[in-house]
What does this fold into?
Amino acid sequence: MLFHRFLFPLVLVATSAQADLLTPDQFHEFDQDKARIGQLLFYDKILSGNRNISCGTCHHHTQGSADGLSLGVGEGGQGVGLDRTAGAGRDKIVKRIPRNAPALWNLGHKSVQTVFHDGRLSISDIYDNGYNSPAEEWLPKGLETIIAAQALFPVTSHAEMAGEVGDNQIAGAVNDRIDNAWPIIAKRVRTIPAYGAMFVAAFDHINSPEEVTMVEIGNAIAAFIGTEWKSTDTVYDDFVRDGNALPENAERGRQLFFGEAGCSGCHNGPLFTDHNFYAIGLPAFGPGRTRRFDPIPRDVGRMGETDSLEDAYRFKTPSLRNVELTGPYGHNGAYPKLTDMIRHMADPATTRASWTRETPILPEAPWLAKADFIIQEDRLEMLRQATVSDITPVQLSDQDILDIEAFLHCLTDKKGNTRPLGVPAWVPSGLSVD
It folds into this structure.
């Protein structure tokens, strides 16, 4: 998702000429030995119920730590990125993932206090384990960062990694209670000799493989994510730190971004996000992220976590660092092109009216075709979504939009998708690596 609003309470507030400088001390420190374990786990399908999908399948190095699709294709799909299919036969996907796969850039920054599009995981003392999460008091203690906590949830999702009830032991365990799956996964990992030895060597408190739990697995994956997708070296950082001039069109875009376009009202700070939640009026489609009692295939956003009507259809402001690499954009990936997302944020009503069902990138799944856009046939729901907006439209010319895009390209890491560790050639389980 791109600009979250030209929000009416904020247009009266003067914005700075540039975002804050991004510095090393703003990040959590991670152990490299743990990160190397995390790299292997991240791409190891041993963490999934049916051993057929890894974290890296939907957060791949070639796709800027995402998957390149509007809505993810989880358990049962085949391939990676734009080549991923919805599967076939008995193993085909049951439904699309309701939301766009979020990028993982700079999650190790200390300002990150909430994650997921609806913020359903946050740092909190409410359950005495450090986090407010869907697992509530069942989330184990000892998870060192919010990245570690986040890593524990995709493996518990039937559509993402667990599989359907009856497919495997993990899927059945999750169906009983979310935390029942974690000991099963941890046993799978620690009984692989190579993993057991690496955990003993990297974790001071682990003296034998039998002591490895999902906490250590989460912390290892977090060490990998926190170092692998740490991004602080961009053309824009050179501009802020050393005063190096931006390209002419990018400089015009910068002035618009921090000026009359109002983008920095929400995309501010060193990560270009205020970490808050706003309604931006994206076109609705897909299965929706529904609560059990909601019969409508919609996504109410932050309200799903808080149960407050004031949060209906509001989603988290994303960081814009490396936004060039992480399309499609929006919580549901409604816009594959960055220019189209910029245009939407300038005038949501007009762009939503011209949006077509051919716009999003959705791998073919004929058995799901009817459900993909059925929400748009609900006139009252479409009216509700259209009337909740935190955006005040602003007039931008085609050139303005291109200039803002040029500025956003200056937020791309100079090494792009070439990261320190990359995709491993093999994983200790012996399973295939995507």
Notes: The longest strand covers residues 121-123.
